[in-house]
């Protein structure tokens, strides 16, 4: 069962990544949110849409997680997953279902929707009586993870894209090439 300290830890991680993502997304002037260095690269608005879609999808995966016979709390694996998700040297193509399709007309709209999705995730982490360590869920790229690990991945995913947003913003400000 998840103790009070672990629950507070995952809520803190989720909230910090929310704040970082929203701050990075708000840093874009409205006229720059659709800029992309190449047709293959996503714009800031497309990244925000992707992060929002992914948050929604991973929450659905969490909701469909199945109980296991034993709890699988593993702080070393959690730390490894957190590092791996943030490592931008490791390229992981996004599944087509989480590619942006232009559903948001503005960055403010994308941020608002992301915030609603993350609020639901945080509320779940705060209130669930389920043993998150005793759930298993199929992550599309990482395989089977427990519920707590999936929340770590969700927080890390939005943080990973904070770095991408910051790279694009710096490129726009300095006229240098952004990192993919």
Order of helices and strands: HHEHHEEH
Secondary structure tally, helices: 5
* Strands, total number: 3
| Side-by-side strand order of the widest sheet | 1-2-3
Furnish the topology, listing elements before pairings.
Elements: H1 4-26, H2 44-63, E1 66-67, H3 75-86, H4 107-127, E2 135-139, E3 143-146, H5 147-174
Antiparallel strand pairs: 1-2, 2-3
Describe the protein's architecture and organization.
It is a single chain. With 180 residues, the chain is mainly alpha-helical. It has 5 helices and 3 strands, in the order ααβααββα. The chain has helices at 4-26, 44-63, 75-86, 107-127, 147-174, and strands spanning 66-67, 135-139, 143-146. Strands 1-2-3 form a 3-stranded antiparallel beta sheet. A hairpin with a 3-residue loop joins β2 (135-139) and β3. α1 (4-26) packs antiparallel against α4 (107-127) and α3 runs parallel beside α5 (147-174). The mean pLDDT is 92.
Keywords:
180 residues; mainly alpha; 3-stranded antiparallel beta sheet; 5 helices; 3 strands; 58% helix; elongated
Outline of the structure:
The protein is built from five helices and three strands. It is mainly alpha-helical and 180 residues long. Strands 1-2-3 form a three-stranded antiparallel beta sheet.
């Amino acid at each position: 069962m998840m103790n009070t300290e672990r629950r507070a830890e995952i809520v803190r991680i989720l909230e910090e990544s929310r704040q970082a993502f929203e701050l990075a997304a708000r840093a874009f002037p409205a006229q720059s949110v659709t800029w992309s260095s190449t047709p293959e690269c996503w714009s800031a608005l497309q990244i925000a849409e992707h992060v929002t879609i992914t948050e929604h999808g991973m929450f659905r995966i969490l909701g469909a997680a199945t109980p296991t016979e034993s709890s699988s709390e593993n702080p070393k694996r959690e730390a490894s997953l957190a590092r791996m998700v943030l490592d931008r040297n490791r390229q992981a193509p996004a599944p087509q279902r989480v590619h942006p399709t232009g559903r948001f007309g503005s960055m403010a709209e994308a941020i608002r929707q992301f915030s609603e999705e993350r609020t639901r995730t945080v509320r779940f982490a705060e209130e669930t009586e389920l043993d998150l360590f005793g759930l298993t869920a199929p992550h599309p790229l990482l395989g089977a993870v427990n519920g707590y690990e999936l929340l770590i991945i969700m927080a890390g995913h939005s943080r990973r894209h904070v770095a991408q947003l910051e790279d694009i913003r710096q490129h726009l400000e300095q006229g240098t090439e952004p990192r993919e």
